[in-house]
Design a protein that fits this description.
Elements: H1 3-14, H2 21-24, H3 41-55, H4 61-66, H5 70-82
Helix pairs in contact: 1-3, 1-5
Length: 84
């Protein structure tokens, strides 16, 4: 799975949780979930659970802590996929 494919899938997962519909139209590798998309830290747990389901992976707590922006999240997803 390419980074572009992961980004597209991740964007759809995050969309329902974001308070910033305009920012959702411009999601990039630099997008920060809390600052740019206004997703609170408690809701990020829901995002992680949805990511696990969507990609068929398991994310441990240390990896979860890194998932604050799109680039880090994609790196965590790629790593988890490679370990399947």
């Amino acid at each position: 799975m390419t980074q572009t494919e992961i980004l597209a899938k991740l964007t759809e997962i995050v969309r329902p949780y974001s308070q910033e519909s305009t920012a959702m139209e411009h999601v990039s590798m630099e997008t920060d979930f809390i600052k740019d998309l206004k997703i609170d830290s408690a809701t990020l747990v829901d995002v992680v659970l949805d990511v696990e389901d969507a990609f068929g992976i398991t994310i441990d707590n240390s990896a979860m802590e890194k998932m604050t922006n799109v680039a880090n999240t994609i790196a965590v997803i790629e790593d988890a996929i490679s370990r399947k």
